[in-house]
Amino acid sequence: MTMIKRILLTSSFLLFITFVAKAQEEHHDEGHETTHKKHSIAIFLGHTHVSKGVRENDRKWLVLPSWGLDYNYHFNHKWALGLHNEMIVETFAVEDSGGETLERSRPFATTLVATYKLSEWLGAMFGGGGEFSKEENFGMFRMGLEAGIELPHNFELLFTTNYDVKIEAYDSWNLGMGIAKKF
Questions:
Q1: Which residues partner with 123 through β-bridges?
Q2: What is the number of domains present in the chain?
Q3: Is residue 29 a part of any domain in this protein?
Q4: Could you tell me if residue 11 is inside a domain?
Q5: DSSP secondary structure, 2-56, as one string
Q6: Nearest to residue 127, comparing CAs of 74, 163, 168?
Q7: Where is the signal peptide, in residue numbers (predicted)?
Q8: Does the reported pTM lie above 0.85?
Q9: Is the predicted pLDDT of residue 47 greater than 50, yes or no?
Q10: SS3 for 133?
């Protein structure tokens, strides 16, 4: 898949999320009182994209399956602080910022992330943490967007995209979909 096709596919996906969430916001029942839930736990299925992957001694764009498990504490309707965890379920090689090839065996990333709700359905995330693998560990920074569609019984359908900067290593971005339970 060429880079242009990936960009078009990602842009289309994000536009779809925007239209669905905006439609939900417009049809939200204004007279219905909801209680503010302080906690949420979410599970995600995603794909992590690495532009500097190495396969068969050739640099290639890698798309790797990943799982995520997030916990968030919501201070109010605008701010939340959470522990976001992600595991890439494959072993892969990547070219680091110095041109060296690094092996990564099912790396696990954990980050402390602050989320600010830009609207009722869209949040901006930023934070830091680390990526851990048996070969080597890296500090990292994360920024991203999360769109949520409310479902009955305090569930929420989530769409997320994150950009991760692994310090002195490599960068990746993730596109995921998940479900959260608020309590």
A1: 117, 146
A2: 1
A3: no
A4: no
A5: -HHHHHHHHHHHHHHHHHHHHHHHHT--TT---PPP-EEEEEEEEEEEEEEEEET
A6: 163
A7: 1-23
A8: no
A9: yes
A10: coil
CATH number for the domain spanning 131: value is 2.40.160.20
Q: Which backbone phi and psi does 166 adopt, to 5 degrees?
A: -90, 120
Rounded distance, CA 130 to CA 111, Å? 6
- Quote the mean pLDDT of the chain: 88
Nearest to 166 by CA among 114, 110, 118, 124: 110
Query: Domain residues for 102?
Result: 37-182
6 in a structural domain: no
Strands (DSSP E) found in 56-105? 58-74, 79-88, 91-95, 101-105
Using an 8 Å Cβ cutoff, are 127 and 114 in contact? yes
User: Is residue 161 classed exposed, middle or buried when 0-12, 13-18 and 19+ CB atoms within 10 A define those classes?
Assistant: buried
Is 4 inside a domain boundary? no
